[in-house]
Structures are given as structure tokens and as C-alpha cells.
Amino acid sequence: MALARVARNGLRRSGGVGGGNTTERNIFFERLSGSLEKINVHSNLTSLSTIKGLNHMNFWSRGIRTTPPYQFPLAERLVETESESEHDEPRYPGLEATKPGEKPRVVVLGTGWAACRFLNGLDTKAYDAVCISPRNHMVFTPLLASTCVGTLEFRSVSEPVSRIQSALATSPNSYFYLASCIGVDTNKHEVYCETMSNGGLPHEPYQFKVAYDKLVIAAGAEPLTFGIKGVKENAYFLREVNHAQEIRKKLLLNLMLSENPGISEEEKSRLLHCVIIGGGPTGVEFSGELSDFIMRDVRERYSQVKDYIKVTLIEANEILSSFDVGLRQYATNHLRKSGVQLMRGVVKEVHPKKIILSDGTDVPYGLLVWSTGVGPSQFIKSLNLPKSPGGRYYKQHNLLSFH
Fold this sequence. Notes:
By secondary structure, the chain is an alpha/beta fold. 33% of the residues lie in helices and 21% in strands.
């Protein structure tokens, strides 16, 4: 072994051990060589063979500090020919598979409508529940538009998931994890997660795994932008509580800025022009709430700029196209009576202060809300599972999917 040779060379240069004779030194070297070989095979030195094959960045992200291999030059030489196959896969902390006699574990990904409805009806006497989501509450999305203008407060449209399923807070083997799922292994019955990175933990992002007996994928969807340039950078979405908070802040900020001296007429009109893209239920509801806010509050509290503020709803076809004709016509008439301007058009590009339609029309805006429907999230797209033409997963053994 290389380590034995190093020891022999060092001892020879030092002139022996304790000044003994040649025969005694040879016996000592033979015993030392044998001892080192035994140690290398049977003791903790075998862990050196893992140094080369491990991903040290994974250890740093999980809060486990290891000495990089360049600080072990001798160890690196020793393990060059060692087998690394047993150390190829990263090791994650977390919940291991349930044991015989334990209740089966149901893992639910998400805290949206489908996930919370499932959790609410789950028989916790027969199953342990684990919920994994980047938010700890359910949002009543149809009411979000009302929170943007102060009709409702934000706490009125959210419900903690632990109230929906109390076992997540009270049962010893049921848990809620504030994290995002980054992968699913259906062969091993494991999901891999990453904690939310907001500076609350010393080493982030921290990754862990959760073994499951049953898995429910209800991770929700993401707003569709159709790849239009500038949407994500300049538009506001309306799907989460923080989205409504941002819209409310932007709306009030524009109202106050427009009253400052030195603001031109053109700039006032731009600042107070609220544009909604998409004539679906969310876009129509927000347009109605905004127009009510203008008529009831803005005209009273911001009288100096009341004549500048306006709302425009842009839709490529007809508003509420999936609803009955009579309902569409009623909504159209109501919005127009409320002062909402309806436009037909397709957005080509979004800039910080204006949008460009496909016919070349420029539409200046101070607030832009994007509500053109939803599609599968990047996490859903990343999973290698059979999907239907609409992007939904087929029901499989031990796997359910909701969108």
C-alpha cells in the first residue's frame, strides 16, 4: 500500500525507530506494513474512497461541511483505483419509508383548492398525512380582486392548511413542510424537496426527501404568458395574496404620484391608466372591482385626478367566452356602464410604460394586470410521467394528480 511505503521511507530517513538493530527494524516495518493494510481495509480509512465521488456542493447546501479533496492529496492518490459505484447517489435526510404495522403515509404536493379539499376529506385514522408546499395556506382566488382595492382584507381570503386538516398540527406522524418539490421517484416512492430560500436558515437551499405510500400531485398551475416579451418583467399577476398586495401598493402609489406638481397631463393619464389583459373570470372581476373603487373612493378622496383615471380591458375575442351568451352580454353591459373601456386586440410586446398590440397600436399604462389563463408549471413539465393531451397526468397506482 502507498501509505505503508510512505511510512517505510520516512522511517528510513530518520534512521530507524529507537535506534534498534536492522533485524528489529525489519520486523517493525513488516508489522507496521501489515497493520496499515488492515487499517485501510477494516477501519474508517475506507471512507476515504468516497471523497472523490461525492458532490461537495450538495454537502454545503445541506449544512454539512467537508474538507475538499485537494486538502487530502495522499488520500486522493490512495483512492484513485477504488470503486465509487456505491456512492454515486446523493443522500438526503428526511422521512424514510413506513414500516410494517404503521399507518400508510399520504403525501400531498400543494395547498390549492384540490389539495385542501383532499386533505379535508382524508381519514387520518387510516392514514398519516404529509403536505408539502411553498405556502402554508389556501387562497380563495375569486376574492383576491376585492383585496386589491380594500373591499376585503388579505386575511379574509386565506385559510391556514393546519385548520383545514388539523392532523398536520396535532398528529405525531403527520407534517406540513414549507418547501418546494423538485423531483419525484415513482420507483422508490420518494419525493425530493427544497426548502424556501428567504434567509431564515443558516445553509440554504436545504434539500430533503419524503417517502410515500400514496402520492397526490396538486401543485397547481402558472399564469400563461405565451412567451410574449416583457410580460414577466412588467405585468402583475393575480393568483396569490402577495400579488394582490403588490397591485394595491402600485395603484395607490400611482394615485399619489399623479397629484404631485410638475406632472404633465400626458403623464397623469398614463399613471392612472389601469390595463387588464384577459377577459376571463379573473380579468372581468378585477375590472368590475376597480371601476367600483374609482366611482366610490377615488372620486371622493382624489378629486384632483378623478377625471384622469380609467380602466381598459383588452381581450383577443369575447369576454367570458366559456360562459353562456346571456351572461357574456350582461357582463359586457355592466362593465361599460361602470366606465370600463373594452378593447379587442392581441398583445405583441410589453414595455415598462406601454404595451404594443399586434396591429401596431401603443397603449400607455400605469398599472398592467395579466390574466390570460393558466398552464402547467415548470415542476409539472419536468416530471417524466404519462400525460393526457391537455397536460394532466393519468391516474396511476399510488399516484393521483389534480390541476
